[in-house]
# Entry
Amino acid sequence: MKITVLNGSPRPQGNTAKMTAAFREAAEAAGHTVKEFNVCKMNIHGCLACEYCHGKGEGTCVQKDDMHQIYAELKDTEMLVLASPIYYHGISGQLKCAIDRFYSALYPKAPECLKYVSMFLTSGDKDQYTGARFSFDGDFLGYLGLEDKGFFTAPKEVTEETLEAIREMARSL
# Structure
């Protein structure tokens, strides 16, 4: 299976990175191909709402930035993993910016190959996931109709128990 991971954390050694690394290692060991993008290090601009992608662009965004690397992966990826720390009850702005740009690639529907989604979240408090969960459920499970492969959270510090649950999910794909 081809898997695309979007990491929305600016901390390369932080809890979110630990979660994506555990997933990637287990998924690759199980024979899957994993491509991870650290969106915080990419030049991705916000959606302009210009509708070029749904007119002259025929699904292609008018902006010429690093989002086109992600678009190339989305064309044939089978699973999407969204990973982020929680900022003000939602995902990081960097990841939100990339997701907003899905408008040209995943609207009005996702490519046929995209079937699964998972979300990895970290925060300083166990009660901070409501906003991100709402988006995950509504946008990815509901609107796009993707199959839920897990919603994993790590309040304060990521535990070995959480990392093992992520590894198990990756091995079971």
Notes: The beta strands are 2-7, 33-38, 79-87, 90-91, 116-123, 147-155. The radius of gyration is 15 Å.
